[in-house]
Amino acid sequence: DTPDRDPSKNLGNCPEEIRVGNYYEEGDRVSKDEIVYECRAWPYSGFCGEVGYEPQSKVYGDAWKQAWMEVGWCTSYYSGTIRTPVTTTTATTSAQ
Q1: Terminal CA-to-CA distance of the chain, rounded, Å?
Q2: Which of 59, 65, 70, 96 is exposed most, by the fewest CB atoms within 10 A?
Q3: pLDDT of 45
Q4: Do 42 and 32 contact (CB within 8 A), yes or no?
Q5: Least confident window among 7-11, 17-21, 54-58, 77-81
Q6: Rounded to an integer, what distance in angstroms lies between the CA atom of residue 85 and that of residue 38?
Q7: CB 64 within 8 Å of CB 52
Q8: What is the pTM of this model?
Q9: Phi, psi of 70 (to 5 degrees)
Q10: pLDDT tens digits for range 12-70
């Protein structure tokens, strides 16, 4: 599937990529290939972390669509924590 790149569906930074085996609840959002998916309501949310139900999976055909719905697209991945590099300066003295 080619994502709909309608500007109104641009959700900005991508949420975390889908991880099979993770626990997901109704409303949780993940990304795959810059497409954002939302875990559907119970009872379908029980499939969201299962093998074969991850977005775009072909294991069970389109069965993944029972667990996830496409809600938009994103432009870059959110890494979780933004860290600023720390530089250490060592003072040197010369002997005279």
Answers
A1: 73
A2: 96
A3: 96
A4: no
A5: 77-81
A6: 34
A7: yes
A8: 0.73
A9: -75, 130
A10: 999 999 999 999 999 999 999 999 999 999 999 999 999 999 999 999 999 999 999 99
| Coil, helix or strand at residue 24 | coil
Per-residue pLDDT at 7: 83
Q: Which residues of 25-44 are buried (b: 16+ CB within 10 A; e: fewer)?
A: eeebbbbbeebbbbbbeeeb
Give the helix, strand, coil percentages of the chain, each rounded to 5.
10, 20, 65
Beta-bridge mates of residue 72 = 36
CB 39 within 8 A of CB 31: no
Q: Which run of H or E residues covers position 65?
A: helix 64-67
The H-or-E segment that residue 87 falls in is: none
12 touches 78 (CB < 8 A): no
